[in-house]
Amino acid sequence: MKFQGTENYVATEDLMVAVNAAITLQRPLLVKGEPGTGKTVLAEEIAKSLGKKLITWSIKSTTRAQQGLYEYDAVSRLRDSQLGDERVHDIANYIVKGKLWEAFEDESAPVLLIDEIDKADIEFPNDLLQELDRMEFFVYETQETIKATNRPIVIITSNNEKELPDAFLRRCFFHYIRFPDAETMAEIVAVHFPDIQKRLVSEALNLFYDMRDVGGLKKKPSTSELLDWLKLLMAEDLPPEALRAKDAKTAVPPLHGALLKNEQDVHLFERLAFMARREGR
Amino acid sequence: MFTGFFYKLKEARIPVSLREYLTLLEAVEKGLANYAVEDFYYLARAALVKDERHLDRFDQVFGAHFKGVIDLTDGMDEVAEADIPEEWLRKLAEKFLTDEEKAEIEALGGWEKLMETLKQRLEEQKGRHQGGNKWIGTAGTSPFGAYGYNPEGVQIGQDKSRHRRAVKVWDKREFKNLDDSVEIGTRNIKVALRRLRKWARTGAADELDLPGTISSTARQGWLDVQMRPERHNAVKVLMLFDIGGSMDDHIKVCEELFSAVKTEFKHLEYYYFHNCPYEGLWKDNARRRTDQVSTWDVIRTYGADYKLVIVGDATMSPYEITYPGGSVEHWNQEAGAVWMQRLLDHFEHAAWINPQAENWWQYHGSIQIMHKLMEGRMYPLTLEGLDRMTGALNR
């Protein structure tokens, strides 16, 4: 069982080593990186390439660790008891399974994605330590222990909004998805748009990396934004020459809305364009 | 197996633990490294480093530690490191140096000594990544380069081409700039108050715990009101202000800013220093000579849960940071960097606010050094900088 990237996902060598280490040693893999570099997609692609089911647990600021295990729906039970429902005698009827339970229970050892773990409360990762380490937990209400028969492959993503506790980090493998270099980027584009014109791509990539080099951008455009932009360029059927015009009259590339997500950044670009035009005169 | 490597990582203050080391060994045993150096590098990185801030340091340690090993496996026919350049240099020197200059070299301890120092400095220069401006390259101040031979000739940085291989992955040190910030923009500082207040008030006020009440009522069968305990301001801040210099005005702004929100913090303590924190800090600038508090006492008084905010322009001579006795005001037994490190070792959450515009930082050696000491946690005195600072301190 080895992950080697898929036809839709270009994995660098260091990423493959990290993923395979996590799979072989059955430890969680923590993935960090700039937004839009394919952290979440990684889990989907691992599941696809290994032919496994993907279970996604998206974390929000209000998510508690317990919700991943199970919840006891006491309110339904109270209501049922008022109505004289027979189900009320068995507490197991009111235990709602969480994503972790689902993953542990699955015989096929699915891929479990815990997405954006840094969104949750600071204690959240600590509350999951034992559960992820031993892959088992105890259900207090029914006095049973849920244990994973086949340990799922756990992928955890973080956007670095909060520091994760050391004890948690020690149990994971870590990979930082670095922003791809031009070569890898060309590969990624080729994977997504096989029939795109070669010249358009190289013009677009040049422009894209130039834009990333501009100092003072609030949010640098990332891989996913580049792919969106290319999609637009293709839909508009723009010739490569339209992109090359950047040095003469306009510094703002066509359809920049896909790349720049902040009006201050757009202003900055327009100012640069204005200055370029003045110098040109 | 890799115990030496492990301890070197520890020395470089990369937080590695025994558990991670065992994980690495387990992975190696399972054949994941595949006996290729590069795979081993990736594997070790994934297993041992858990924060991208430490990736660059890891690369350096890895490079230094496995250098010999890689040289052995990659080029058995390589000549020993310093042989060629030394011969070459000696010849060059004999050709070009006057007798006077030769005498001068003798005074420095002779060729062997000189070469040894040179090699040592080369190592050192390779080992650190920025602010190395006192090493080879600043012509005129060091004995090397002063005699007319270009350091290039001493094969500085040439061991890569000798191997006729591309640069090693870890020598590229791609993560070097990972935590460097680029954004700038000085805007109105008043809005910053609101941000700081927001920071101080982490946590909601006390309230009825509605889900708790419902759940508990359903469990018990009677009305059982649950109250969530009042969450009060938990942020404790220790501030150090650089005082007595060109930046006093800016630092005053910052001081006022923080004292304006003082009531919002659980604790806000402040001390002053000049240019770089050394062994003593003071609370009253008028009595700075007499009423100094030992920095050790400060470290011991305030727990690690305090967030350390240093305000200063960090613009000084690099010696004031890196050398004992470098302070302009008094004789300091230990270098400023040592004291900075002690502070940072103790206060896990630390940030430096720099009133200098961010795009100027790169031109000041001392700011670079400080920036590196702070591991990138230096922020400009702008709204956005404060934002980034509180974000980093809250993590």
UniProtKB/TrEMBL annotation, chain A:
InterPro entries for this protein: AAA+_ATPase, ATPase_AAA_core, CbbQ/NirQ/NorQ/GpvN, P-loop_NTPase
What GO annotations for molecular function exist for this entry? Answer: ATP binding; ATP hydrolysis activity
The record's listing under SMART domains reads: AAA
Short name of one Pfam family for this protein? AAA
The segment(s) forming the AAA+ ATPase domain are: 25-183
Q: What is this protein called?
A: ATPase AAA
Originating species: Thalassospira xianhensis MCCC 1A02616
From TrEMBL, chain B:
The major lineage groups are:
Bacteria, Pseudomonadati, Pseudomonadota, Alphaproteobacteria, Rhodospirillales
The protein in question is named von Willebrand factor A
